Amino acid sequence: MFSTINGCVIVPTYNNEKTIKDVLDRVLAVVGETTVIVVNDGCTDSTSEILKEFSDRVELVEYELNFGKGMALRKGFRRAIELGFDNALTIDSDGQHFPEDIPLIVNAAKENPGALIMGSRNMDQESVPGKSSFGNKFSNFWFKLETWITLPDTQTGYRLYPLSPMRKMMFFTKKFEFEIEVIVRLAWKNVRFIPVPIRVKYDMDERVSHFRPGRDFFRISVLNSILVLGALLYYYPKKFFSIDTLKAVKKEAIKPEESNLRKATSLGFGVFMGIVPLWGFQLLIGIPLAVLFRLNKVLFIAAANISLPPMIPFIIYGSLLVGQKVLDGEVNHSKILSYSLDDVMENVPHYFLGATLLAIIAFVTIFIVSFILLKIFRKEPKA
After folding, report:
1. What pLDDT score was predicted for residue 198?
2. How does pLDDT run across 156-208, given as a tens digit for each residue?
3. Are 182 and 312 within one domain?
4. What is the DSSP string of 60-109?
């Protein structure tokens, strides 16, 4: 099955005594002679004893201390590379995945050489715990922000990795957050992602989850903060100057299937975020909101650039004028024009109120004007 893509299977496990035997029996039945690497991540239950039954059928990597799923995967990848494999399919040992779906993932890898195949679970089915569904949506959002790639399931452990781009990569995480780090950094290396629908089973009587919401969620949040910063400083600039990206930007901006209402809203919201007094955080807050409300990201960012340095004095001036009118009931142009930086700091209430109102006025104005112009010069797409 794996011969044409030169691949193996990696099964990381930690204290899965209730499920590990069934998982390995089914995996081996499906993959035949394909190498299966099992990583014993310092199990303290009877898992180690169960694995002895498979000693002649699997490649076993084990160590005494438990380091976390991320480290288990890293050791599994290292062994796969040492054995000369080009691809590695990972499957969890807690019984939630169906080994019988392996052919679906392998076939997708054959059709898409060099891609990372993601087994995508249906997280809306009744058996899926609410916290798992929420966590997956949360992860999908941050992955989109960090890579500009949309995936239906970024937390799946059922994946087929191309090992070539990982040979010289140094990873920094060791636990559950590794599965986020690795896909984001592979995306930054321009590895393609192919989602493949798979089945999932949550049997609460057998399944053992080692995810600790407090500690693990904190680590994942810290990692996402670092990755967002990396995207802003490295990935986005790198993509911005590529030909493919310029084509993608043009395509996103034009989007013939997008309504005039959405385009006008994107422009108006961009100007609003560019003026609203959130200096330094406009895009950091605005981009996720634009993604959430499915606005045109290119038009939003272009309009938000109203706050570029040459425009800042005009924005401050207009904000102070509006704030002065509202709070003092009068407008004194000459007074504002004579303001020094210290004077502006002393009139912060005028500025913040004025900037907020100015942002709202600008949103309404740009929205109305752009919507009218689009109605005149652009044909509304068919629903």
Report:
1. 94
2. 999 999 999 999 999 999 988 999 999 999 999 999 999 999 998 876 555 55
3. no
4. EEEESS---HHHHHHHHHHHHHHTT-SEEEE--SSS-B-GGGHHHHHHHH
Same domain, 125 and 231: yes
**Distance, CA of 220 to CA of 180 (rounded, Å):** 8
36: helix, strand or coil = strand
Q: Which two tokens stand for residue 278?
A: 């959130």
Task: Give CA–CA dist 18/24, Å, rounded.
Answer: 12
Q: Which of 176, 203, 235 is the last residue before a domain boundary?
A: 235
Among 204, 235, 266, the domain-final residue is: 235
Nearest CA to 86 among 116, 41, 118?
116
pLDDT band, very low/low/confident/very high, at 342 (cuts 50, 70, 90): low
* 110-147 per-position pLDDT tens digit: 999 999 999 998 766 655 555 556 677 888 888 998 99
Whether the per-residue pLDDT at 239 is higher than 60: the answer is: yes
Contacts of 316 (CB under 8 A, 6+ apart): 344, 351, 355
- For residue 309, what pLDDT is reported? 67
- Residue at 286 is within a domain: yes
137 and 67 in one domain? yes
**172 and 100, same structural domain?**
yes
| Res. 41: pLDDT tops 80 | yes
DSSP annotation string for 293-314: TT--HHHHHHHHGGGSGGGHHH
For residue 97, the enclosing domain spans 7-235
Q: How many CA within 13 A on the CB side of residue 167?
A: 11
Contact 95, 205 (CB under 8 A): no
Cα separation, 151 vs 137, whole angstroms: 10
Do residues 371 and 228 share a domain? no
Answer yes or no: do 170 and 27 share one domain: yes
248 assigned to some structural domain:
no
CA 182 to CA 83: how far, in whole Å? 21
| Residue 49 burial (C-beta neighbours within 10 Å; 0-12, 13-18, 19+) | exposed
Output the average pLDDT for the chain: 86
Q: Which residue has the tokens 């288990």?
A: 72
Name the strand (E) or helix (H) holding 315: helix 312-328
